[in-house]
Amino acid sequence: MRPFDSILDLMEQKFRGEPFHTLEMLYGESVGRQVPGGTCSDKTLSFIHEARKKGFDAKLHTAFIDGKEIHNLDRLNLDGRVFFADVGNGWPSLHPYPADEQITHSFFGVTFRTEINDDMLSVYYRIEDKEQLQMEIMLTPRPEEEILTEIKERFSSNIAYPFTNRMRFSAIVDDEFRFLRENILFIYREGNVTQISVAKDQWQNALLEYFGWDVKLTLPERS
User: Fold this and answer.
1) 194 in any annotated domain
2) Does a structural domain hold residue 80?
């Protein structure tokens, strides 16, 4: 398998087997660790670990969301070119973004498009005919040690993420992309979106029925 195809395969594995979720933020570590994956930092670190085991030059990188440097992704060097693999995305970003070429790709009815200006790569995503800026990636890397320190402090540094204190759980399941956002489960297929209302007291059942994860959603006991 070509190196680039191997990366594509690994990205899809991660989007299927390691959901994006906020269980640790909502219910604590004991619940959050029952499901692999997590937020962007958790998923990116997992991907980098596997990519390095396969011999790839993979490093931590950051991106800006709404002007804040709060997103983590992977910087890859493949055959002399730089790519950004965004496996920590809550949406199905299944194709690496090249640092030297603008691209457009669609998965499950969600379209990702990049623009490159000076030292910045901008990523836009379109859902149901509505496009918006998702993130901005500085092409110049930062020291990985700095990023790792920020990751360790991310839940104690008063950083407000777009999903802070909100239910988020997404993954590819069979030939669908499924995303539980608060009280609505979105099921994306090519050319079709289904919405299912899911009350908070039904989240646990929804994770089992639609994602295959049997997790007991209980808040940690206060000492």
Assistant:
1) no
2) yes
Question: In the predicted model, what is the mean pLDDT of the chain?
Answer: 93
In a domain, 170, yes or no: no
What pLDDT score was predicted for residue 223? 46
Q: Is the dihedral of CA 161, 162, 165, 166 positive or negative?
A: negative
Number of structural domains the chain divides into = 1
Question: What pairs with residue 117 in β-bridges?
Answer: 120
pLDDT exceeds cutoff 80 at 163: no
> Using an 8 Å Cβ cutoff, are 94 and 86 in contact?
no
Q: Global pTM? A: 0.93
- Alpha-carbon 178 to chain mean position: 13
Instruction: Let me know: does 120 contact 138? Beta carbons within 8 Å.
Output: yes
Q: In angstroms, rounded to a whole number, what is the distance separating the alpha carbons of residues 158 and 14?
A: 28
The CA-based dihedral angle spanning residues 112, 177, 62, 75, taken in that order and rounded to the nearest 10 degrees: -80
Beta-carbon count within 10 A of 158 CB: 6
Q: Which residues span the domain enclosing 126?
A: 3-160
Rounded-to-integer distance, Cα 178 and Cα 181, Å: 10
3-state helix/strand/coil string of 97-132:
EECCCCCEEEECCEEEEEEEECCEEEEEEEECCEEE
- What is the Cα–Cα distance from 180 to 16, expressed in whole angstroms? 15
CATH number of the domain enclosing 149:
3.30.2140.20
User: Is 217 part of any domain?
Assistant: no
